[in-house]
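Run log // design_07
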């Protein structure tokens, strides 16, 4: 009988009232101790904490959040968890949020607008304090309307929507411009671009940097050398294969870091040796770019830093910052390896 009573006591979740009774204090005192108030005597604080530990008491964070209108949680939505560059940004977000006393709800939209819409609705239902989002696309009126209707701070990562929302991005225009100009300086004139669609900021800005570099060098833009309809390794394989299998194939190619494996596979299937037959630059310094032999020249973006900046910005908003929306641009670094042949 006593064993059954003991088991029921273990299985029964302790309440703040149970802690108060065991410590012989008021519920208000327990609340002050748990909320780390400064006006509680050390001996009394110790007694309450010991009672809570003995009862295996865990505060109900959701209930606390409902009372304080804060949950201590930031919702984070990304379009592709498998992309190594997105993963770096998530690590940066988590590191900074942890330092600032927050946790994250992480969701993957899989480049699906309807799924993204449901995720944002779920974040609102769960009353997260703020949201950091890498949207599927940032030119969709329905998506923009949903963002405007949110009741919590929002920071966009690698996306921009007018001047309404805080945004943090890498310098895709300058990075792609530098990659293109470098290939031009080596004597390349037919340079292909395989990257993400132009319905989001990354694709638009990469295309702009590429076109600006060619225009500044008075090189005609060949639209047949530009592929911007997908995100995956499989898409990059098909796109680059179709470009590289033509008689007038390009001597150089610039590719999004997350698609690098697809271009490498297409080169292998076509028996193209890097850099002898094809010079290659990755927009994003992935682990694969560094491990390949020869190493792949890359534009290195500090994705972890973009995550940290986004996390700090959303917390600043939660702490009362009411200034106009800001745009933060994280600079790039040019990493020269052995994947580009000098034709000059």
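design_07 sequence
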């Amino acid at each position: 009988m006593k064993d059954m009573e003991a088991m029921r006591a273990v299985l029964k979740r302790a309440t703040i009232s149970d802690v108060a009774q065991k410590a012989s204090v008021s519920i208000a005192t327990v609340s002050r101790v748990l909320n780390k108030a400064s006006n509680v005597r050390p001996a009394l604080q110790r007694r309450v904490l010991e009672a809570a530990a003995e009862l295996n008491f865990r505060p109900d964070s959701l209930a606390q959040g409902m009372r304080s209108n804060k949950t201590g949680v930031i919702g984070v939505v990304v379009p592709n968890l498998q992309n190594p560059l997105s993963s770096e940004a998530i690590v940066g977000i988590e590191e900074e949020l942890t330092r600032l006393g927050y946790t994250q709800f992480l969701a993957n939209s899989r480049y699906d607008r309807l799924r993204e819409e449901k995720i944002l609705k779920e974040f609102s239902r769960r009353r997260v304090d703020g949201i950091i989002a890498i949207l599927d696309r940032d030119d969709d009126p329905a998506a923009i309307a949903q963002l405007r209707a949110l009741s919590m701070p929002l920071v966009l990562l690698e996306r921009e929507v007018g001047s309404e929302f805080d945004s943090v991005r890498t310098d895709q225009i300058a990075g792609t411009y530098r990659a293109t100009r470098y290939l031009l300086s080596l004597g390349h004139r037919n340079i292909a671009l395989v990257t993400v669609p132009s319905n989001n900021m990354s694709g638009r800005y990469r295309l702009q940097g590429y076109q600006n570099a060619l225009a500044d060098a008075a090189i005609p833009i060949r639209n047949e050398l530009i592929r911007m309809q997908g995100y995956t390794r499989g898409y990059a394989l098909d796109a680059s294969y179709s470009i590289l299998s033509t008689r007038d194939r390009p001597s150089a190619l610039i590719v999004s870091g997350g698609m690098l494996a697809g271009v490498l596979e297409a080169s292998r299937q076509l028996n193209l040796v890097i850099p002898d037959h094809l010079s290659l630059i990755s927009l994003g310094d992935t682990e694969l770019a560094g491990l390949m032999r020869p190493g792949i020249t890359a534009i290195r973006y500090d994705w972890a830093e973009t995550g940290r900046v986004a996390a700090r910005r959303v917390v600043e908003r939660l702490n009362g910052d009411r200034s106009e929306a800001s745009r933060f641009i994280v600079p790039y670094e040019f990493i020269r390896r052995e994947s580009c042949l000098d034709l000059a």
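Residues 84-99 form the longest helix (16 residues).
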